[in-house]
Design goal:
heterodimer; A: 220 residues; alpha+beta; five-stranded antiparallel sheet; 5 strands; globular; B: 233 residues; mainly alpha; two-stranded parallel sheet; two-stranded parallel ribbon; 41% helix; 9% strand
């Protein structure tokens, strides 16, 4: 979706402001939100792409004015309601009122913590040979799906060069909408800064994205 | 600055959408001294309510949530990445393996074996400086660097890193030679990127442990350099 989360190249957000000796969490509730998201994801309530999509679909003014973990909280609450794990009435009451919905991987308890700390694997067997080779010139498609995609706007329509082939991975555009993993070849594609930003762009800049094969067309 | 301290996250107050508290009391941090210290912000109350519901419904065990937080607070962090970098600086065979397949090479080190798949290590040279961003959300090599800092997840960095990286670097007081290539890696998939910075001059004969002390988090994101030997830490 063409949401405000797709920020690459936008102007007007001001300086980057690193915080010296930044704590891991600024408020205790932030750590609880992180833990709940990780736990419910590991229990099978949603996949990582779906959780990203729920944050992206927050209203733009909410997205821009909420802190990072506030966005995580809002996305989590809405996602769990829409997936049937809780109801708006329960949220309003602050207590469970309906029977639980079964979780794919069961209740998240202490025995699951070790497993959760191991990063997930996203590589999958290839359903077809790769269309592109290292060094091929490719054009990022001019597509504007209203659903989740990982093709940022700032590269669409531009020509780049395939630099790395990462194998086949879960396709976020499908997984986010719960349409299956639909594995696709994944490439690092590198673009010249001036191709993206015009003559005034930094001549020493190259930018790469990791692009799934359905995002790309062959180019001359 | 308080929580969510990116300028764009806190600067503006828009009209309030009915189901979301836009001003969100995230900023209670700033205002709490005006109130009773025992008062909980609306966000805290909502987060507690959600945890209560998830617990009552049997979805999560609160002690397991505590354990997740403790694991993040103790097991991950830039010390993991620093040890990898220091080893690459002292062991040419490891450096070569690391650049060929980051996950595999790091998997051979017992202490950080949980890096997971798909870690790509990119090397700074006198001709090229690498910088990592996630313009779409906040993708970051957690196992190597810990949880990302607020600035990495906020609009100013995510918007400008791919268009004006030298301007962004200036915000970190980092200035690169005019003709050096800048390569920005936008983390748009489940691949993760770690920058291998250049070894500081004047560290000949240093041990891995000594070298690891010089490796900063930002030097592995590409928004900083390692510390110089003898510089105050």
């Amino acid at each position: 979706m063409n949401g405000v989360h797709d920020m690459g190249g936008m102007d007007g957000f001001g300086k980057v402001e690193p915080e010296p000796n930044e704590p891991m969490f600024h408020e205790e509730w932030e750590s609880r939100v992180l833990a709940m998201v990780r736990a419910m994801g590991a229990a099978g309530a949603f996949n990582i792409d779906t959780s990203r999509f729920y944050r992206e679909t927050l209203p733009p003014h909410v997205y821009l004015s909420s802190s990072y973990y506030k966005k995580w909280f809002l996305g989590l609450e809405e996602m769990l309601i829409e997936k049937g794990y809780l109801t708006r009435e329960e949220v309003a009451a602050g207590h469970a009122m309906q029977p639980a919905k079964a979780l794919k991987h069961g209740r998240f308890d202490l025995a699951n913590v070790e497993r959760m700390m191991v990063r997930g694997k996203f590589a999958r067997p290839a359903p077809a040979p790769a269309k592109f080779n290292i060094g091929d010139r490719v054009r990022a498609k001019n597509i504007h799906p209203a659903t989740h995609t990982r093709l940022p706007r700032y590269v669409r329509g531009h020509v780049g060069v395939v630099e790395l082939n990462h194998g086949c991975h879960v396709f976020p555009d499908s997984a986010a909408m719960e349409l299956g993993e639909n594995p696709q070849w994944l490439y690092t594609v590198v673009f010249e800064g001036r191709d993206l930003w015009g003559e005034d762009g930094d001549p020493t800049l190259k930018v790469s994205i990791d692009a799934f094969e359905p995002y790309l067309d062959p180019a001359q | 600055m308080g929580p969510g301290c990116a300028a764009a996250d806190t600067r503006q107050a828009w009209a309030i959408a009915p189901i979301f508290d836009v001003m969100s009391h995230d900023h209670d941090h700033h205002h709490r001294h005006d109130h009773d210290h025992s008062e909980l912000s609306e966000t805290e109350l909502r987060v507690r309510a959600l945890e209560t519901i998830l617990t009552e419904k049997g979805y999560v065990e609160p002690a397991a949530l505590d354990a997740i937080i403790q694991a993040y607070e103790t097991k991950i962090g830039p010390h993991n990445g620093a040890r990898v970098v220091a080893k690459a600086w002292t062991d040419p065979a490891f450096r070569k393996a690391l650049l060929e397949d980051g996950s595999k090479a790091i998997g051979t080190l017992g202490h950080v074996s949980r890096v997971g798949d798909h870690l790509v290590v990119v090397e700074n040279t006198p001709a090229r400086h690498n910088m990592v961003v996630c313009t779409l959300c906040s993708c970051y090599p957690w196992e190597m660097l810990g949880l990302p800092p607020v600035w990495y997840k906020a609009a100013p960095y995510r918007s400008r890193a791919v268009k004006d990286p030298r301007g962004v670097l200036a915000d970190f007081d980092v200035n690169l030679p005019k003709d050096i290539e800048i390569r920005v890696w936008d983390s748009t998939a489940e691949t993760r990127f770690l920058v291998l910075p250049m070894r500081p001059a004047g560290t000949e004969g240093w041990s891995e442990e000594q070298l690891a002390e010089l490796v900063t988090r930002d030097s592995m994101i590409g928004t900083g350099f390692p510390k110089s030997p003898g510089a105050p830490s």
